[in-house]
Design brief:
Length: 220
Amino acid sequence: MNATAGEHRRHYLPGMGHHRLLPLYDPLSRLLGVTAIHRPLVEQAAVRPGQRLLEIGCGTGNLALLAARLHPRAEVTGLDPDPRALARARRKAARRGTPVHWDRGFAQDLPYPDATFDRVLSSLMLHHLEADDKVAALREARRVLRPGGTLHVVDLAGAGARPRGLVARLAHRRPRLHATFEDRIPALLEEAGFVDPVEVDRRVHLFGPCAYHRAATPMV
Ligand SMILES: C[S@@+](CC[C@H](N)C(=O)[O-])C[C@H]1O[C@@H](n2cnc3c(N)ncnc32)[C@H](O)[C@@H]1O
């Protein structure tokens, strides 16, 4: 499943804020504990054998690879607009022999039919999007989820106009990124048509405070 050529012309903010910094993404993620936020999200998703899981904004693939390792009988897909990040993800998957589908595309225009997945995961991706695109991305997540499927989001959190934490301050200095630091995720989830949005957990890391959210698609 591939994104269309038109989608590739869209602007996006890469993992470290700049393409040249991408080689630092994995070492810094390990150093600052970014990878440690992934396991609780996979556990929260309670994936069952045979289910289909999508990570939107998978970057270099750490979360999708962990999900595939912990749930070898699930079908895992990682999607990101950044071809360099996807190339890294593909190399890691090949080295580890972990089967994951990698697709290039944008969260706000997912290249999948309605009701394709049982679980959608998003880790540190929403704060890369403009306000309108956040809602568009969440609407798309709802569209590709099956009735009763669930979305699981971990992202930077905390009140205040200025981001706190090392990575938040150094790598993400653009004003539009501050919007998700204001605890708006439950409201955005409702606006996108999800039901029962809940904050599942909140943890403070070296790179900043993070909140975990879960929401469900309506049963039809
Ligand atoms: C901070 S990285 C997080 C990567 C990974 N999810 C993790 O937890 O390590 C944010 C990612 O969001 C991706 N991204 C930016 N805009 C996007 C969009 N419109 N749709 C999907 N992903 C996007 C970036 O390319 C980057 O890989």
